[in-house]
Amino acid sequence: MAQTADSAPSSAPMRPERGESLRIGDVARLVGTTPRTIRYYEEIGLLAESLPRPSGQHRVYTHAEVERLREVMRLKNLLGVSLEELKTLLTAEEARAEVRAQLQREDVDPVRRRELLGEALGHLDRQLALVRHRNEELARLEGELSDTRKRVRRKIRELDARAAGAFPPPTTLQGSGQPQP
Questions:
Q1: Among 58, 87, 117, 169, which residue carries the largest CB count within 10 Å?
Q2: H or E element: which one contains 108?
Q3: What angle do CA 176, 178, 180 make, to 5 degrees?
Q4: How far apart are CA 19 and CA 60, in angstroms?
Q5: Per residue in 78-103, pLDDT tens?
Q6: Rounded to an integer, what distance in angstroms lies between the CA atom of residue 127 and that of residue 92?
Q7: 60 — phi, psi (to 5°)?
Q8: Does an H or E element contain 22, and which?
Q9: Is the peptide bond before 16 cis (omega within 30 degrees of 0)?
Q10: Any idea which architecture 18-49+58-79 has in CATH?
């Protein structure tokens, strides 16, 4: 996807054409990461490792590999999961894709179809468990921050009341708005 001299640069991220192969530096720029991160993701199995190539030749990435990397990074940023959790999530997604491909065949007998659907359900359960765990952690953090915010606001009110000479501030009757005796 070469840019001609008279074409204006785009602010949208570049997308490789379907048949276009890109080198690692190009891929890193496209998805907003570094070549080192891409190599590490390959090393730990988040991305397919490159095939052996003659010395001096560069690894090239296909459209599908670039899209896979985009999805890896999107999920990592969205969920804030560890790389191991991300690997679990993506492995389950790949397994579901394989099940989907088998289910799309017309010659699958009903017994096998049910087995495949049960398998897909197990993969979805693993993915949901990971997402729910992350949601629980975020909810817990939100609660902690809300509690801290309430304490800080109370301390500000107390400081303001002291500065106005009205400390301790009068307590009010519940719901009446009138000071208690």
A1: 87
A2: none
A3: 110
A4: 12
A5: 888 888 888 888 889 889 989 999 99
A6: 7
A7: -115, 150
A8: strand 22-23
A9: no
A10: Orthogonal Bundle (1.10)
Both tokens assigned to 126: 């693993």
For the chain, give every domain's residue range.
Answer: 18-49+58-79, 81-165
Closest CA to 67 of 3, 10, 20: 20
Residue 9 clears pLDDT 90, i.e. is over it: no
What token pair was written down for 46? 């988040």
Question: What pLDDT is recorded for position 148?
Answer: 96
Of residues 167 and 58, the one with the higher pLDDT is: 58
Quick one: three-class SS letters along 36-68?
Answer: HHHHHHHHCCCCCCCCCCCCCCCCEECHHHHHH
